[in-house]
Write a structure and sequence with these properties.
6-stranded parallel beta sheet, binds flavin mononucleotide
């Protein structure tokens, strides 16, 4: 079993990264292989709707997303974590999600994988952001495990004081392992 966590914050070591790492370490405790992918510093261009993927099943844009595709395809579960930027996901998260469009061809290649969502805001917007991530999962015929983890923090690494969010991230990782085990046994 493999669970991949994708951190969509531009801040390395930020609040989102801490929560995604917490979920992954809990998944690891229950026996899953895990992998952390941080989008910070990576070059991921927006989808240009060139249509090449309809025909080839591959995205024609040559950038850092090409290294990420195999990890998504080999995962049983994917966790997307994003800070809240203006009541939404970050631009990095949106570009990443849009670029998975190619994985719908020739068939929905992420279908049946379990999705977990994490959102952190200094004040508000977590629920909308979690809903966007979960809607993305549904669009990919994935299985969102539940609404997800909402954290509240502003300064870098302040999230460790949000005990509720840290506990929820721990539960997310463990529950994903349990659900994947049920689905694959
Ligand atoms: C461009 C931008 C937009 C933001 N928009 C919101 C917002 O709509 N609501 C909110 O409560 N916090 C907002 N924030 C604060 C971040 O969500 C918050 O600092 C978060 O902890 C950052 O997570 P990170 O450490 O993982 O990068 C915004 C921050 C930036 C830089």
């Amino acid at each position: 079993m493999k669970i991949v966590g994708v951190v969509c914050s531009p801040r390395l070591g930020g609040n989102t990264e801490i929560l995604v790492k917490e979920a992954l370490s809990s998944a690891k405790e229950l026996g899953s292989n895990t992998q952390l992918i941080t989008l910070s510093g990576k070059k991921i261009k927006p989808c240009d709707h060139c249509g090449a993927c309809y025909v080839t099943g591959n995205c024609s844009i040559e950038d850092d997303m090409q290294d990420i595709y195999p990890h998504l395809l080999s995962a049983d579960g994917i966790i997307i974590g994003s800070p809240v930027y203006f009541w939404s996901v970050t631009g990095q998260a949106k570009a990443f999600m849009d670029r998975t469009y190619a994985l719908r061809y020739p068939t929905y290649r992420l279908e049946g994988k379990v999705g977990g969502a994490i959102a952190v805001a200094s004040k508000r917007g977590q629920v909308q952001t979690l809903a966007l991530i979960n809607t993305f999962y549904l669009g990919q015929r994935m299985i969102p495990i539940h609404l997800g983890v909402d954290g509240r923090a502003s300064k870098k690494s302040e999230i460790i004081e949000d005990i509720q969010a840290m506990t929820a991230a721990d539960h997310l990782g463990k529950n994903m392992v349990k659900l994947i085990t049920t689905l694959t046994s």
